[in-house]
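Field reference: sequence -> structure
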Amino acid sequence: MAKEELKIGEISKPRFEYRTFGRCFKKQAERMARLSVPVPEKVWERKSVETYIVSRTNNVNNTKIRDGKMDIKTFIQNIDGFEQWNPLMKGAFPISAEVLKTQVFPAFMVDNLPALEKETYTVEEFLEIVKKHPDLQAVTVEKIRYGYMVNDTICETGDVYINGAKIVTINSESTEIEDLKKTVRDVGLEGFENINYLQAIKRVTGLIDKPL
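Structure field:
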């Protein structure tokens, strides 16, 4: 069966991902840029401000809010060190109390769920609930991302500010694990820890006692 052709900036079937974080990946970023085929101008540089909701008790559901919309992805499997995540839910604010009760808060895997007395909640109201819960934390994540395509894998480098603290990320995504392995080798990323945004945010904010 022919593999799916990935198009950068477009939705495909769930991909596997390699991503790492640190202080500097200058050499690897230069190699990624040189190895990349031309990509659409819309992904040359992308900026966003997102709010991640992290939970002390959850490492398998990744929740973020961007442009007034909530996006939750759930971990599916790890093959040869590459993680695959699938969409769990998408919703726009104002969001109903029913969705919060049945989909959002269960994804956090926390006890002491809040009493929801309104029918719908704005972003601000939802974040206020999060702020009051002892096991939840809302984290502001600013991203400046630069897109590439290497070995038919969708790649990027990025400057990431987690509550204002700067770290650097570099990644590659594909539906084909062998293409990912080749890209990791070609770019010079072998030996670096492969971790996701949820783990990186928890380490920077101290929810996980481990450095990047």
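Note: Residues 12 and 62 are 19 Å apart (CA to CA).
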